[in-house]
Amino acid sequence: MASKATLKTSIAVIAAVGVLESATPSALGYGGEDVRHGRPWHHLDITLRALAGDAAADADVIMPIFDGAGFSRGAAMSVAWHADYIDSYLYNPLWWAQGGLDSARMEAALAMHDDLVRMHHDDTFTTAGIADNFERYFAGALAGLYWAAEQGEAGDVAAAHQIIGIASHALQDFYSHSNWIDDPERRARTWFEVPPAERGELDLYSGAYELTEAGAPAHHGAYSLSCSAANTSGVEDTLSALCGTYSPLQSSSMCVTHRVCDDSVAVNISVSDVVAEDTVYLHPTGIAMDTTWLARIGGEERRLLDGAGHFRAASAERVFTDAQCNAIVNYGVSCEHAGASETCVADTERRTCTTDADFLFAQGKYLATRSTEQFMYFLERAMAQIDPDDGDRYEAFWDRVKNETSSMSQRTAQFEDFSRIPFQFMSAGEYPVRNPSVGGEDTIDTSHGWYLRTRIRTSNDRLSGTDADIRLRVEGQGWSRTELLDYLPTSDAGGRTDNRLLVYNDFERGENDVYTVGPFPGRPQRVSLINDSASAGDVAEALWDDFVDGVDHAMTGIRRVAIGLIGGNADFVGQRSAFYTLETFDRTFGGADRFSRSMTVDGGPEGRYRLYYDAERVDGTLSAQERADGWTAIRFTLTQLRCLRESAVDRGSNSDEPFVFVTISPLNGRSGEQSWGFRDGPFSDVDSGERRNLRGQRSVTVELPPGGGVAMAMQVWENDSENAYDRRELWRTFRTGIDEETRRGNSRFLDEVGRATAEDWRVAELEVTPFWRGERPQVAPTGHWRGVGWIDGGERRSFNLPAGASRWVIPLDRPSVADWMYVDIDPGVLDMLREATRSPRLPDGATIRRVPIPSDVDPAGTSPDVTRPDLGDRLRRREPAVLQTPRLAAPVLSVVPPWQGTWSTNFGELRLVQDGETVRGTYVDDGTLEGRFDPQSGLLAGSFTNNERTGRFEFDLSGETFSGRWRWPSDAAWREGWRGERADSARPDIDGN
Description:
Structural class: alpha+beta
Strand content: 15-25%
Helix content: 25-40%
Strand order of the largest sheet: 28-29-30-31-32-33-34-35
Shape: globular
Number of helices: 26
């Protein structure tokens, strides 16, 4: 047994771990290399560089990479603050408590939890769901920016900073939380650089975080305070003694946690003011790649790296050179924000990329930064085209967003003033989408739909507030729905609270709150505020329900405590999960139609069990079109449970009584697809080496597209003195990840008394903004009513919404959101990129240049081509935004200069070499040409010589062809019709050498 001194030391270490864990504002989301002080905080650093460039980063840049998207340093920091502090409001109790338990910050952290969770690209297990996330963030950001521009005469810049900051956070998390970088072919380009039609063919998912991992392909990974404490040397020794084989506590939650933590992984980190080596543990481990030290764990979980942090053979490809990797892991500035002050310092400690894990992290961070920069240009282009009739109004607002600084009080108000919270334009609605249905919950198909941003100001007069439930009834053409307006955390359908200390009291006197509800199937036309107070019957019924629930809970608790004293609760043996892609199945089938496999759970002294199952192709269940598209149907049949080793002790019995849970979740993007569950047992008198055939409905057929997969999980328990109700609760917890006993609500009776005695409500102001979030976001006119007055208990007040036309944020003659978020890259350019990034120098003929993004696009709806922009009249009318190619991967957007190469023309072969903006060449072997390319106008203009005569020319490039005109000095007008088509993009020989 551990000594008192050892235990005292252990308690101190546990306390330090708690401080470290609670002080970490990132929860594994591009956090900091230093878990307490960042150095750097990666989200802040990524955003600052993407928006303002290396020069604004206040750091000693060892290799310039990003020039930024044209933001001032102050504006970029305002946006970057939100990109970083979203996690402080979500996960950091030290940040919440700065204003005290009753502060607006604490209320915001608790009330906004679910909304903030939706901005992390987690818990999404299908490619269709990933694509929906991108559309949610981009379309929501556009609707929010339009709304912000409409606030007052000049617009709300601080709100816009929050919208794009939180959207940037979600975008950056994609490269850390998903399997994007698992494929070497994807490490050279961002999501935006993959054609929209090809994105749906990818096999993508992100890790589970809020959802149970039983139905997920992988877990995100999480810090575990309980495992950090349980694995501390003194505590571990004590728990080993308390939870031994013959201990009556072996089946207690404390001892189950102790056994589960055997699979946890220590994070060996040293922070600036605390040495925490071997005291911080991850459980479960996951795929997150948020820091260099997490990248080794995440890379191994992804099966990209071995235990030493080196690539496995199948994924052995580094995209960067050593110097480039070092530049990325070292770029960074750490900023501390306290009160109204901001202190930023460069990191003086230099890190060196030594393993492939470092290169994987560098690749993800680089892609996150480049994507954020591209995202800003997409937003800028959209703001320039919201409505041409308004002139430069929205462009002028965007210019203010790029150049003005929002103060610290303005930043915090976006979270803590409940009349603001503009990020709800992106977070509103169900999340995640397109996942399998688990535990009887519906599968959400999409986050598309109409939403209502509803602001309600309760009068400041005495007794104006209410404790009644306030509901919003929303009506449209042929439909209606009612929503409860409540930031109160609830634990069940009855709306009872988890903990009365953790609530936000809605509709208090003088409160001004925003609720964003939806989605709705059509544009809302009418809303009603309903005061749903309680009757005497409601109060009586609540009192009876509380009595029955209390007796049931008390008796269940007494029984569980009693049998726990003698070790009579079910013993947890262990859990195992696996993820199989369709490619994995194809390799396993090996041309056959059926195979048999098994999964093993090893619970140490609690026993070791193996589950056997068969998998069989049954493609006859598919339609002809599905078979043509490459779908496969697989029938799983569970067959046997085998005891490889029985438990060491079973309260006097010489055999085990195991029971088993299994879930199979198809990840195919289909709406409504159900996660299948199976349970069987307890089996009696099972000894080592014995098998038991599984009973009941043991088969399920799943249908998978080419990029699909299956998540399979099993859990084994050993029966003691628990009853069928206890086993059902364990089954429910396994399938949903929620322990209902830990979520039991407070008294419904007290809730109903409040609704009945403080029911009347006086409304000072109501403001409702309908908006559509989807492929073409739009915002309808806002309804605004002042002096609404009293709405007594049981009454309602209705309002007709304005019927004016919606404003399309992306005009109808422009591409949809998916096409808009696309950077067109020649496939050959990607090959040159890979070659360039493996070498310290660029390939011959490659240059670093600025590439114009068209400020308008083809009305026919084609994707804007940022490599060879449209140079028509629309482009000349407005100066285009400039996308500056990052120096680290200069060839990404244009390796071959646009005019360089050999051209077949109606006046003979034309051979051109481009050096910067200067272009010179020869044609038909007896003429020369020299001109200058203007990236702003898009024209190549100059002079040509033929048979000692000199003339002028102008060429206009469009893709792989050009059209031009020419004239001799004596000509009164231009001659049209010099046309050409690219024959070869290689650098031609025009000098005879």
